[in-house]
Q: What sequence folds into this?
């Protein structure tokens, strides 16, 4: 009897229950319930909803068979803000919406770090939903397989600081760590040459005042270069000093050094250099030989070394950028008058005696000469010519006749040549000049000569008017 009653009660329970579909985060189940309101049904299925979770049916709505209840749970966030650690659920699409759902104020200057990535609080579509499967499979309902892990979010509060930029003062708010980062975040461009106080690397603190002194853009054309830079100087001269460009007294600067700078001013420097050039005109001295009867013949003595004449011309030359533009002669003067070089040559003749090749000879002069040899057949005269075999003096060519330069050895002078013997200066030749002597031979006993020898002019000497006191040095006597 008891079992019949129990079965009857079960049947009545099934007949009077409502069939309801519950869908949570896309996972659903259908169940029977005798609950009268939606809120109590959701409690039965262990759904502890947060304030920002979304339910498709109001909690006080009555239960009806065939009802579909859709629940969208909001993500959980762990907030670190203002020295607090909070957990909040939110359907917000931006960090700012999530933080405001926690009842905390935030502005666009603050910054939010989500899993270590810093961003603006108003950045959209950056909030991922982090889910994880539970570690057990004893699920009563499908959505129990989804376990949320709160997304960590840290708030960095912006600090108000004052910026004075070129005389214009305004306030910015920043979460940056240094002055340079704060200015860059505020999109304030700092140019090379601008002065920022405190320095760009200084840390940010509340109430900080930043002063920016703006530099002026300038360009300089100098030394073949075109320099574009910026400077804090006020005038052209100071700008050139600031840039490190030196000037000389003659350089031309356009505009002038005292000109007040303005944006994008163009400065041109024409380099000017003045040189003093001195040119010398050298007048060679004249060498004069004077006789000295006390000096032996073929000896010389310096009487006056002589001096070159020097005339100098001083010219002032002006260059601009390396090119000569003017030349002015300032002075011409004689720095040194020429003086003759005076050399005394000997005119004293004395007899000298020497034994050569077993013979004792007496001579009045010895001359170092280049000796060659010739005969009638090698003299360059045709045998058919009437003067074939004749010398300048008319004598017939033979050994013992030598050809000389009469200006060095007077004709008919008797000489002695070691290795040749005695000779008479009775012939001349077009090639026999100065210290040349041609030794004559018969055609049948010609000996070839081409060497330097000492030629002795035998005593007595000729009259003084026939003597060349200063001998030429050609061909040049070898050392």
A:
């Amino acid at each position: 009897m008891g079992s019949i009653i129990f079965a009857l009660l079960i049947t009545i329970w099934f007949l009077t229950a409502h069939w309801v579909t519950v869908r949570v985060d896309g996972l659903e189940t259908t169940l029977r319930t005798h609950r009268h309101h939606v809120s109590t049904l959701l409690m039965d299925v262990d759904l502890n909803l947060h304030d920002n979770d979304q339910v498709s049916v109001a909690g006080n709505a009555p239960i009806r068979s065939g009802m579909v209840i859709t629940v969208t749970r909001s993500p959980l966030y762990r907030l670190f803000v203002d020295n607090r650690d909070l957990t909040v659920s939110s359907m917000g699409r931006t960090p700012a919406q999530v933080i405001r759902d926690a009842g905390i104020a935030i502005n666009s200057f603050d910054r939010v770090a989500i899993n270590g990535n810093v961003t603006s609080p108003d950045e959209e579509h950056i909030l991922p939903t982090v889910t994880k499967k539970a570690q057990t499979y004893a699920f009563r309902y499908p959505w129990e397989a989804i376990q949320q892990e709160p997304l960590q979010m840290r708030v960095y509060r912006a600090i108000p600081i004052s910026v004075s930029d070129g005389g214009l003062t305004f306030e910015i708010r920043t979460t940056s760590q240094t002055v340079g980062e704060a200015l860059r975040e505020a999109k304030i461009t700092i140019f090379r040459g601008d002065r920022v106080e405190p320095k760009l690397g200084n840390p940010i603190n509340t109430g900080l005042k930043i002063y920016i002194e703006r530099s002026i853009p300038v360009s300089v054309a100098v030394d073949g270069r075109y320099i574009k830079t910026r400077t804090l100087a006020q005038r052209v001269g100071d700008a050139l000093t600031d840039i490190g460009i030196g000037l000389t007294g003659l350089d031309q600067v356009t505009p002038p050094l005292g000109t007040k700078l303005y944006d994008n001013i163009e400065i041109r420097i024409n380099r000017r250099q003045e040189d003093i050039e001195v040119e010398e005109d050298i007048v060679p001295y004249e060498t004069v030989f004077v006789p000295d009867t006390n000096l032996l013949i073929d000896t010389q003595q310096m009487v006056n070394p002589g001096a070159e004449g020097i005339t100098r011309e001083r010219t002032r030359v002006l260059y601009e950028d390396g090119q000569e533009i003017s030349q002015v002669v300032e002075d011409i003067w004689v720095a040194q008058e020429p003086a003759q070089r005076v050399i005394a040559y000997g005119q004293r003749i004395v007899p000298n005696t020497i034994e050569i090749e077993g013979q004792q000879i007496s001579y009045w002069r010895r001359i170092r000469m280049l000796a060659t040899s010739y005969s009638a057949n090698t003299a360059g005269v045709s045998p058919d010519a009437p003067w074939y075999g004749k010398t300048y003096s008319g004598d017939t060519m033979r050994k013992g006749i030598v050809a000389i330069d009469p200006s060095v050895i007077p004709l008919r002078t008797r000489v002695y040549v070691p290795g040749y013997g005695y000779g008479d200066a009775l012939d001349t030749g077009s090639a026999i000049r100065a210290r040349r002597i041609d030794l004559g031979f018969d055609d049948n006993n010609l000996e070839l000569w081409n060497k330097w020898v000492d030629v002795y002019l035998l005593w007595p000497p000729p009259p003084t008017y026939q003597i060349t006191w200063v001998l030429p040095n050609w061909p040049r006597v070898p050392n």
Remarks:
- The radius of gyration is 63 Å.
- The mean pLDDT is 87.
- The helical segments are 2-16, 38-44, 95-101, 179-185, 236-243.
